[in-house]
Amino acid sequence: MVNRYEIPEIKQPVSNLLVTESGLMYITTNEGAYEYNIGYKQLTKLPFTIPEKDNGIIFYDKYDKVWFQEGNQALTYYDPLNRSHHRFTFPNQNAIGNFEMQDAGEQGMFFMTPGGEILLFDREKLEMTRINQLKPFSDDLPNQLFFHLLLDKDGILWLASTSSGVYRLNFPKKQFQLLTEVSPSPVVPERSTSWNQGIRALFQAQNGDIWVGTRWQALYRLDRNGQVKQIFSDKNYLLGAVYHIMEDKDGNLWFSTKGNGLVKAEPDMNSPHGLRFTRYINDPKNPNSISNNDVYFTYQDSQGRIWVGLLGGGLNLISEENGAITFIHKYNGLKQYPAYGLYMEVRTMTEDEDGRIWVGTMDGLMSFDGHFTTPEQIQFETYRQVSENSNVADNDIYVLYKDTDSQIWVSVFGGGLNKLVRYDKEKREPIFKSYGIREGMNNDVVKSIVEDKNGYLWFTTEIGLSCFNKATEQFRNYDKYDGFLNVELEEGSALRTLNGDLWIGTRQGILTFSPDKLETLHTNYDTRIVDFKVSNRDLRSFRECPILKESITYAKAIELNYNQSMFTIEFAALNFYNQNRVSYRYILEGYEKEWHYNGKNRIASYTNVPPGDYTFRVETVDEANPELVSNCTLASLSFHRGG
Question: Of 176, 403, 483, 540, which has the highest C-beta tally within 10 A?
C-alpha cells in the first residue's frame, strides 16, 4: 500500500525525507528543512537550511534526535523536544571514503566523515570530539585517518586505520566518581606524584559528618552528602597532616598527625569551631609525654582504653588521673616491650573476640592479652621465630581490619591478604590463611580494607581495586574496563559511609562508588582450539602423511600415530573486551583426573601419552563473573592413537 501526502506549503522538489515511528516526517528542499506531523497534518519550518548541493541523508538516533548530513561539509543535530539545533562542521579534507555512523547509546554517537575523520558526539555536553586528537591516538600516530568503523554487539568500536592497522576502543560505564571539592589544586587527568597531595584519612562520625585528612595539612569537615562544611588550616586552626581519625565512646575525635602530635577534639558549643582542641606533643623533658610526634593510629579497646601507634615511638597507652593525661610507653611503663629498637613503627591495631590486641608494625605482627591490671604486666608476643611459616611474622603490616563477623584480616606489604584463622594458645602463635595473586588478587600489596553493607571485603592495591566474597573466597578485580579511574590509591584510606557508599582516598581526590550499583559487562564469547603442534611441528608441515585435512579450529577429532605422543594444544577465548580477565583450565579426559588451572597461559603440553581414546576439554573462567564458569563455551577434542 502506498500513501500519498500533499503538503501545499512545500512548492519545491523534495531532496530528502525521513519518517519516524512517532509519526513525524522530516523533509529537506532547497528552501529549507521541515518537520511535518502526519497525524495533525501540521508543517513546521525548522530554523536551519541544508544547501541543495550538500544534501545528504537524514536519520534519527536511539534518543530520537534527528540528524541532517550536509554532504562532505557538516552534520546538523536537531532535538524535537526543545526544538534546539547545533551544526558541527567536518574538518576540511579530501574525500577518501563514505560517510558512516554508529550509535553507541549513552556512550554517544560515532561518525566517520568522507575525509576519514572519526568524530565522537557527547550527548550530555552536545560536543563533537575528533578521535585522532585524543591522547591514545595522538601518542601513537598523530592525525590518523580511517577507512571504516564498526560497533559490535559488545559495545566495542573497531576502527580500520589508513596506515596503522585496526584499533579497538572500549567504552566502560561511568561507575566511579572523583570528588574534587577536597583538593589543593585543580585535578588534572594525569597522575600527580607530588608528595603533598593525597587524601590520607577518611572517617564518618556518629553524627554523619565526614572528616577528611590530607597530606597538604588541611582538615575538611563534610556533610554526609560530601559538601564542605568546615576547613581547618593555617587560617584558623592547623592540625597538620592527619593520617588517621578515631571517635571514642564519649564522642571525642582523635586526630593522628604526621609530625604534629596527637590532637583531641571535644565537642564544645562555646568554641568558635564547635570543638575544643587539645594537642599532645613530645616533650623531651617530660618522660610521661607522648613518645613521638609522628602519630599513625589511635584505637579504643573493649575496655575503653585508648592506644596510640607512633612511627618511631612504638605503642603508647593513654592514662588519665585527676584530669591529667599521661602516655605510658616503652620508656616509662611498658617494661616488657620488645628490645633492640624493633616494633617501634606502629601502623595499625585491632582487638579479637577474646580480648587479645593485635598490633601491626613495620617489623611484623605483635600481640598481647588485653586482660591486664597494670601496664607493667603486659607480655608482648612477636613472631619472628615463626617467619618460615608466615609472611606476617616479620614483614611490614599495612592494615589490620576486623569485619562484622569479628574476623581479622591482615595486609602485609608484598604478602597479599592474610586471614587470622585462630590464635593457638598452646604454641602462642597465630594461624593464618593467605591469599595472593595465585588466588585471584590483582596485586599482592593491599593498601586498605573496607567492608560493604553486604559483607563483601574491598581492597585497594597498588594497581586498582579488588572485591572479595568471603563465602566463595573468590576475588573480583576492577580496572579501567569497569570505569575505574586512573588514580593513585592511598594507604589506609577507605570508608563505608552511612548510606552504604564506599569512599577511597587517592592522590587525586576522593574516589566514590556504590557497590550495589556496579555493573559488569556480560559478554558471550566462544572458546576455540587455535593451534595444534606435534613434536613442535605445525600440523600443516605434515604434507606426506597429513594428520588433519581441515583447520584445527573446526576439527571434531584428530588421530595420531604411535610415534606422535608429544603434542601441544593452543586455545583462546574470543573475548575482545578484556583478555586480562580470562583464565583457563583444561583436562585430557581418560588420561588425567584433575583439571589444570592454567591462569592466562593458553597452551597445554603433553608428552608420552599412551595409546587410547581421549577427550581434551578447555574451559574459560571470566574473572568478572566467576560463578558463571558453566556458561563458558566448551571446546572438545578427541585423540585416537593407533599403533
Answer: 176
